[in-house]
């Protein structure tokens, strides 16, 4: 069993003023007022943490970076290990969002150590979850699959729906990326159900995106686009700038797989602008890959396509995105393959092979 979702990153008085579905503009305004009126170092640390998280979700990475560092300094002044762990969790999450994965690992590892010593179970769990997600994004599934399962069991044991949704959707993403679409769909659908019952709108939006991805791969683009539209409403209502950009990138993926290359090109261009504005290099690179593939399908000169693929391979290698790098290599092989000899037309019930999908979340 589990209760309603809650947001432990909003601490002290902020915990009673803000909820898991508060819009991030509201969070930012409330946290800034709390920071201005803070009477102790610990109060300043908690308020700055909320400021950092709101700015991160809004895509304002410079402000988020300044705020989590302020939170850490104030927590250190207060000599509160748990508060320091929360600040480092925020900083590590921001580093991952910005594509600096080695820094994300260092900050989150330090957060795990501090939280463990402080006895704050939630800070410890969130820091471990951050490490697991960082490894998953890098494609290091063998290293983090068991950790995802452990975190899911912890969420179930303590009735924490938000954590269950996070862990379950992460496991689903690994199944999706390794080709077990039925299992991925089952887990994403269960994640949506839990998020809905626990009133976790953000978790529902991410999980709907996961279902849309799998349905698209299985050849159901129209239903996938409907689910992405539903998730987009949630993202806009909560000011989830990064999640909205990833939603748009997934819409481009769906359109591309369905052979709607002109629509896909326009949608990838939209997500590229959004990621560029919020200085999120991982999203920028993934959107560029979608654009390269769409333009190639629309007749772009192969030499230009190969040149940009070479740049993207360097970007994905630098960021540490193994799965995305594999997608670049696979598409380059398609571009450079010699023209196939004429073959008989397929039977009407034959399945058309599609290009591998651009990897999903963050």
UniProtKB/TrEMBL annotation:
ATP-binding as UniProt keyword: no
Positions of TPR repeats: 165-198
PROSITE patterns tied to this protein: TPR
Pfam families in alphabetical order: TPR_12
InterPro entries reported in the protein's UniProt record: TPR-like_helical_dom_sf (IPR011990), TPR_rpt (IPR019734)
The UniProt record lists the keyword Isomerase: no
Keyword set, alphabetical order: TPR repeat
Region (Disordered): 339-362
Identification of the protein by name: Tetratricopeptide repeat protein
Organism: Streptomyces piniterrae
């Amino acid at each position: 069993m589990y209760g309603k979702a809650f947001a432990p990153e909003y601490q002290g008085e902020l915990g009673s003023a803000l909820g898991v579905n508060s819009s991030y503009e509201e969070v930012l305004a409330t946290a800034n007022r709390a920071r201005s009126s803070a009477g102790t170092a610990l109060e300043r640390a908690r308020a700055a943490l909320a400021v950092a998280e709101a700015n991160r979700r809004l895509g304002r990475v410079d402000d988020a970076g300044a705020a989590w560092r302020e939170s850490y300094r104030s927590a250190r002044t207060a000599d509160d290990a748990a508060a320091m762990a929360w600040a480092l969790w925020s900083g590590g999450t921001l580093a991952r969002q910005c594509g600096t994965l080695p820094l994300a690992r260092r900050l989150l590892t330090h957060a795990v150590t501090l939280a463990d010593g402080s006895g704050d179970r939630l800070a410890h769990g969130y820091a471990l979850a951050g490490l697991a997600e960082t490894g998953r994004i890098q494609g290091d599934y063998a290293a983090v699959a068991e950790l995802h399962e452990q975190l899911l069991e912890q969420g179930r044991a303590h009735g924490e729906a938000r954590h269950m949704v996070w862990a379950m959707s992460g496991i689903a993403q690994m199944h999706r990326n390794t080709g077990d679409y039925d299992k991925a769909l089952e887990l994403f659908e269960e994640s949506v159900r839990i998020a809905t019952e626990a009133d976790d709108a953000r978790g529902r939006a991410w999980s709907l995106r996961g279902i849309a991805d799998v349905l698209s791969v299985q050849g159901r683009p129209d239903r996938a686009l409907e689910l992405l539209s539903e998730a987009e409403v949630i993202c806009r209502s909560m000011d989830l700038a990064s999640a909205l950009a990833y939603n748009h990138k997934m819409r481009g993926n769906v359109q591309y797989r369905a052979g709607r290359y002109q629509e896909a090109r326009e949608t990838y261009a939209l997500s590229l602008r959004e990621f560029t504005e919020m200085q999120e290099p991982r999203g920028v690179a993934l959107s560029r890959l979608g654009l390269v593939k769409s333009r190639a399908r629309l007749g772009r000169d192969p030499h230009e396509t190969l040149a940009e693929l070479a740049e993207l391979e360097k970007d994905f290698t630098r960021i540490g995105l193994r799965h995305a790098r594999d997608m670049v290599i696979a598409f380059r092989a398609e571009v450079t393959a010699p023209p196939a000899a004429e073959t008989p037309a397929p039977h009407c019930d034959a399945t058309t092979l599609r290009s591998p999908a651009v990897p999903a979340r963050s």
